[in-house]
C-alpha cells in the first residue's frame, strides 16, 4: 500500500509541515510520497523556501507556473500521485500529534473518506485577525468527531482528509468553481449521492494562518457568491441555505435584503474592528446572502 500526501500551496511556506509529515511517515514503515504543488504563487521568497522540499526524502515540490484555482490544483495532485490512499492537507496546517499519519493509516481498511478535523491555537497573537479566530474558536466545540459524525457529509472539510484513490478519480473537484468556498460542501453532497462512506475521527491539524479581518470578510463574501452559484446542487448540506429557506417562508428575507445596504457600512466597521461579535458575523453572512438572492 502506498500513501500519497498531497499539499496544494499558494504563497505560503510549508517546508516545516513537509518535514514533520516525512518524519512521521518514515516511522510507519510504509511506502509513501509527499507531493507539493504550487498553484502559481507570486511571492518569490515563499517559492524559494518551498524549493527546499525537494531535498526532503520522498518529497517533491512542483511549480505549476500560473494560478488555476483550488479545485484544479487538487485534481492535478491526484493525477500525479501513485498511492492507493490520498491524504490531502492544506499548506497552512501544523502537525500537533506525533501519531497523525499513523492514525490515518489505521483507517485505510475501512475504504472510506476519513476526515481528521481542524483546531486553532489557544491564543491569538494577532489582534487584526481576531474575527476569524473568534469565529473558529466559537465553532470548535461543534466540530468534534462525535458531533461531525452526526452529519458526516455536510461536515466534510478539505483542510485535512484522506480518500481512496478510486473515489478521488470518480469524484474530482469541480473545476467550474472559480470562486473561493463551498467546493468541499459540494463534494460531500456528491459523495452522499454515490453512497461513499465518510467517517470523522479526532486527528486534527492546527490551522496556522488566519487572515486579517478585512481579508477574511472579503473571502466570506466571495464564498457566499460561490454558494449562490451552487445553491441548486447543494441539497440541504449548507446550514446557511437552511436558515435562508426558513426566512423565506416568513418573507423575512425581503426585509433583510432591503435593510442590508443601509446596515452594511456599520456592520463592516464593527466586524473589521478590534472587538467583532461572532453573532454579528453570522447575521452579516445571512443578510449578505439575502442581498445576493435579489
Describe this structure in words.
This protein is an alpha/beta fold and 294 residues long. Helices cover 45% and strands 15% of the residues. The chain is built from 12 helices and 10 strands. The strands form 2 sheets. Strands 3-2-1-4-8-6-9 form a 7-stranded mixed β-sheet, sandwiched between helices. Strands 5-10-7 form a 3-stranded mixed β-sheet. Helix 9 crosses helix 12 and helix 11 packs across helix 12 (278-292). The longest helix has 20 residues, at 252-271. The N and C termini lie far apart (51 Å).
Uncertain residue segments:
none
Strand elements, count: 10
Q: What global shape is seen?
A: globular
Helix proportion: 40-55%
Helical stretch count?
Answer: 12
SSE layout:
Elements: E1 2-9, H1 15-27, E2 31-38, H2 44-50, E3 59-63, H3 70-79, E4 85-89, E5 93-95, H4 100-105, E6 113-115, E7 118-119, H5 130-139, H6 145-148, E8 160-164, H7 165-170, H8 183-194, E9 198-200, E10 205-207, H9 213-230, H10 239-249, H11 252-271, H12 278-292
Parallel strand pairs: 1-2, 1-4, 2-3, 6-9, 7-10
Antiparallel strand pairs: 4-8, 5-10, 6-8
Helix pairs in contact: 9-12, 11-12
